[in-house]
Design goal:
Elements lengths: L2 H8 L5 E2 L5 H11 L3 E5 L5 E6 H11 L25 H11 L3 E6 L2 E7 H25 L1
Parallel strand pairs: 1-2
Antiparallel strand pairs: 2-3, 4-5
Bound molecules: adenosine monophosphate (AMP).
The site of adenosine monophosphate has 16 residues, from strand 3, helix 3 and strand 4.
Length: 143
């Protein structure tokens, strides 16, 4: 199974922000949309960073309320690991486990075309296991 299959089900919309948006604006957006990470895009639409709730907790622990007026570019992770639509779900699980992060932007020809979270992967995995179980039940019932 590849990421394109998951995007077909969950859709391709990605919440993004600009590098000069403030930490307050990022926190508002994360809360409103009930999501865990936002992809930061530059002028040309390319991925320049990612910020997750974990980064917000860290900067607030370090700076307190002053953190809220900082630009997100000072807080985000700049070395973003991305995947493509043809990346397998198994590879994604390995990338998330090794990198210790729960979000992966999907990029095709330099363009952001989606995002997958660990929640999407778990949901997909459960559906696959349920399908296997019902196929096996059918096999044993007829066998
Ligand atoms: P998360 O588990 O996604 O909340 O993120 C944990 C940490 O990894 C945070 O510092 C994020 O900025 C960073 N992070 C999240 N996703 C990625 C990614 N795809 N590539 C690199 N770093 C990431």
């Amino acid at each position: 199974m590849i990421i394109a299959n998951i995007l077909k089900v969950k859709g391709r919309s990605v919440t993004t922000a600009r590098p000069d948006d403030t930490v307050q604006e990022i926190a508002d957006r994360l809360a409103q949309r009930k999501i865990g990470a936002i992809v930061i895009v530059g002028g040309g639409g390319s991925v320049t960073g990612i910020i997750s709730e974990r980064d917000l907790i860290r900067v607030i622990a370090q700076r307190g309320a002053d953190a809220l007026s900082m630009p997100v570019s000072e807080v985000m992770t700049r070395e973003v690991v991305v995947c493509g639509e043809a990346t397998s779900v198994d590879d994604i699980m390995e990338m998330m486990t090794n990198g210790r992060f729960r979000h992966l932007p999907v990029v095709e020809e330099g363009r952001l075309v989606g995002i997958v979270s660990i929640g999407d992967i778990v949901k997909h995995h459960i559906a696959e296991v349920e399908l296997e179980v019902s196929a096996m039940r059918g096999y044993f019932a007829t066998g």
